[in-house]
Amino acid sequence: MDKVINDIKDQISENKVLLFMKGSPYQPQCGFSAKVTQILFSYDVEFSYIDVLEFPEVRANLPKISDWPTFPQLFVDGELIGGCDIVTEMHQNDELSTVLS
Q1: Which of 20, 23, 89 is nearest to 60 (CA)?
Q2: How far apart are CA 95 and CA 92, in angstroms?
Q3: What is the extent of the structural domain holding 9?
Q4: Which of 2, 30, 32, 50 has the smallest CB count inside 10 Å?
Q5: Which residue(s) pair with 80 in the sheet?
Q6: pLDDT for the residue 1
Q7: Rounded CA gap, 81 and 60, in Å?
Q8: Cβ atoms within 10 A of the Cβ of 63, count?
Q9: CATH number at residue 39
């Protein structure tokens, strides 16, 4: 269990923009993941992703680290930005471009 948590923390710290999502950016498996990937694509920003459906141990343990129960979860520079609602709101308020730059 500790190894999984350490691996997740390493992934978060090693990737500038990391999205934990259901599916992949080109084949999202839920509408919320699809929406966040479309927003990220609109910024032409490079991002990494982890499919929590493919890695159930990540899906089970990430909420313990982030204190966020749902997916997707967007991390930038090691910090949780939030899920679909927060990312969408930040995009609409032009706050996300500042976070991503």
Answers
A1: 20
A2: 8
A3: 2-100
A4: 2
A5: 75
A6: 60
A7: 19
A8: 14
A9: 3.40.30.10
